[in-house]
Backbone:
């Protein structure tokens, strides 16, 4: 549904919608000819499929293998081809940095250069995160730029996130990592004339950083890439006229939820703590997005058995979700991560809507072959939430 | 997938993709209540469906009966509603005339006029192709136009193709066939002021032709229609970053393939020779389009049994195609031509993708009723090739 139409038709109600995203949910037949979901035989998810209405989502488009960022935007109801989230923005949101509308974000690597300025180690020996944190603290204190605020935060090992905040900053800058050693980091240049001032600021940042780090044997220089400004995403609570909360262990998903205007709830580091957080906040919100990471990480590792186990672990908690009595419970995936491919893929993703007003179909099992026969058909992921909100009677009639 | 996105995500690989188009593949239940595909019981195609992933393509749009031109453009990944190929262009490409970007093409008919200039036979007695060839040779030699090159080629019987080559030629000209006898061929006029110069050139061509043919009893005049310039189609090898070849017996399909930038391989006049050509060139290309005509011609003739036989003839050769070991083999049709309709139709067309990374579905037979349950669903034909290239790992990830 177009966002303008959502804005026009959405209507407040007292119903509650819970969207559970199992990251990389979709799979493929493994060693025994059955997919992860078939092998897992998840009896609670199967019951949701039996009682609810199933289908398969196409995350971004036919044949497109998506990253988790666009995959989630689609599940939040946004067309990921229209709203692109740049890598610098994902890196900053991924460490819970609260990006604002005037921010320009980049991903950074600490590297090591010799006396001649040529890179000897592009990753500074994969320096410990704590060391990177110390360096970031130093640069945060000592670097001063005219007319913009600067924020620098450690990510992991040699990686950091850099944010400039100010009016008129532009992302049209080149990447400065030459992708090999024995050469100097590239100069920052504007790839669009409108970005000349931003390029000058970035060069000044690099120059000051080089002076401050120059005495070090290791991690005495840096490279920057993935320059991006936050997309101006229409805000979810305003579009849908409701209070929306996100529960996610991993920072990137919290960051994405924050970009669309959801309240990000503090939670622990386990799925159990996510459920606890959900329960504690159940009365305060109309919509919840809850993220489950472990299906994807197992799939990415090519570990079929562990992905099966992750599905079973999620499945075991479904009764606790149902006990909250959501009007509509949605189980979805942001993309497929078949363990046999050890990678994200383009294959459509099983989904099920359970709760009020679902017209049941003949699907009895929540898996790839069966959900093909579901009442939702195969459809774009960005339409899933509008359908769910329809079931929650949060969309008014179109026309008379 | 939008072409800009293809350009951005396509990535070279060593995989090979073979697209086999069975012209007019889709059918309808015949005398015994079974479709041509059901009746044919093609065991090799059934095996592809069993092992691969099936679905049905909508050639151009819901309810649209398409010609082979737009039907093929869609299978090549282009939106046929965005890129229209005019009839003059199809006629010229249909006789292997290599159209260039500054060409204007028309379809021509030789006709017979009386001493009063009024048409006595719109088709010049369906004059023999060899006679039309002689007339074309004469006009090619003797007609001279200021500022443009002219090419005239026989097609079949009284029909010929006319091409003007030069800067600024415009297709906004009327058709000069009055569609009845007893009146003169119409004057050529510009239907847009920008085409005045082109109209004058075309009138000059007609005038010189009339003088050169005036002494003849038959085929002493001509009519022109279908004025068209070649569409500027983004080129397939550049879009997909690969080497693409076409193998087709019939000229129109070679012409269409040439328009999108495929190499058109010389081949014989039978499907056996097409396979031979495919085999001989297998190492030199990444993508092959192979065309099989006989399903459509039988369907158009309303010959149910012959269409069944054509499917079986193709089926018998599938092992030879598999022996080439393509990473991805796609079986598709450009449109349906149900024998019971003796015509093209709008019905969706069965398709199957076989090879690497296919997520299997419950389809065991390659026919209309069964492919409805396929993992690809019912989807736009222009998305088929992006999906196939995804299976061939020739599309990189979208976003992080």
Residues:
């Amino acid at each position: 549904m177009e966002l303008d139409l959502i804005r026009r038709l959405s209507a407040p109600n007292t119903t509650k919608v819970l969207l559970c995203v199992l990251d990389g949910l979709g799979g493929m037949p493994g060693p025994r000819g059955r997919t992860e979901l078939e092998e897992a035989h998840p009896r609670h998810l199967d019951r949701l499929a039996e009682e609810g209405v199933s289908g398969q989502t196409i995350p971004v488009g036919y044949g497109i293998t998506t990253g988790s960022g666009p995959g989630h935007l689609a599940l939040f109801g946004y067309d990921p081809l229209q709203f692109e989230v740049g890598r610098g923005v994902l890196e900053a949101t991924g460490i819970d940095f609260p990006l604002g509308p005037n921010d320009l974000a980049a991903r950074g690597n600490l590297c090591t250069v010799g006396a001649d300025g040529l890179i000897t180690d592009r990753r500074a020996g994969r320096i410990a995160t704590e060391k990177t944190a110390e360096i970031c603290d130093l640069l945060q204190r000592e670097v001063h730029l005219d007319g913009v605020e600067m924020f620098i935060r450690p990510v992991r090992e040699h990686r950091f996130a850099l944010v400039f905040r100010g009016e008129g900053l532009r992302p049209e800058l080149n990447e400065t990592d030459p992708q090999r050693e024995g050469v100097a980091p590239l100069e920052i240049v504007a790839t669009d004339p409108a970005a000349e001032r931003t390029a000058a600021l970035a060069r000044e940042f690099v120059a000051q950083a080089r002076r401050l780090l120059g005495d070090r044997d290791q991690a005495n220089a840096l490279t920057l890439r993935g320059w991006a400004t936050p997309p101006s995403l229409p805000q979810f609570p305003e579009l849908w006229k409701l209070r929306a909360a996100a529960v996610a262990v991993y920072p990137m998903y919290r960051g994405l939820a924050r970009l669309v205007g959801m309240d990000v709830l503090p939670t622990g580091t386990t799925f159990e703590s996510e459920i606890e957080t959900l329960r504690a906040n159940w009365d305060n919100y109309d919509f919840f997005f809850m993220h489950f990471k472990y299906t994807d990480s197992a799939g990415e590792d090519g570990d079929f058995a562990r992905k099966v186990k992750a599905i079973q672990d999620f499945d075991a908690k479904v009764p606790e979700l149902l006990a909250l009595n959501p009007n509509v419970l949605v189980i979805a995936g942001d993309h497929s991560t078949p363990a046999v491919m050890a990678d994200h893929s383009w294959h459509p993703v099983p989904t099920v809507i359970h709760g009020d007003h679902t017209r049941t179909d003949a699907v009895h099992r929540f898996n790839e072959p069966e959900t093909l026969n579901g009442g939702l058909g195969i459809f774009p992921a960005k339409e899933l939430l509008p359908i769910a909100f329809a079931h929650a009677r949060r969309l008014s009639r179109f026309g008379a």
Summary: The longest helix of chain B spans residues 304-323. Chain B touches chain A at residues 1-2, 5, 9, 357, 359-362, 373-377, 379-380, 383, 386-390, 395-400 (CB under 8 Å). DSSP finds 14 helices and 13 strands in chain B. The radius of gyration of chain B is 23 Å.
